[in-house]
Amino acid sequence: MKRCFLIFIILVIAITGLSSCGISKEEYDAVVSERDAAQAKVNSLQNELSGVQTEPDHTDTDCQNNLAQAQEKITELESTISGLEELLTTKSESKKIVSTGIID
User: Fold this and answer.
1) What is the pTM of this model?
2) Cα–Cα distance for residue pair 104/89, rounded to 1 Å
3) What is the pLDDT of residues 22-51, one digit of tens each?
4) Residues in CB range of 58: below 8 A, 6 or more apart
5) Helices (H), ranges, 1-104
6) Which sign, positive or negative, has the C-alpha torsion 77, 81, 82, 84?
């Protein structure tokens, strides 16, 4: 009988000791909550990335139109520069003629 009682006491002590090992419920809940928040952020970022990959801001047609407009503008500006260079050359030649005294 003493032997059964002794085994019973040892089992109670062992079960009580084992049940108090580990982390507290508060710590567990905090870590689980943090994990859930991190998982929600990952899901949100993955959804955002999917949207960016499937819906580009500019289509090829938009880019081609923008390129054509830029090329037209470059052509206009080159023409303007050419006209200004001709005007500058003409004025320079006029100054030479006036300074040499050919025209009074």
Assistant:
1) 0.39
2) 20
3) 677 888 888 889 999 999 999 898 888 887
4) 66
5) 2-19, 25-54, 60-100
6) positive
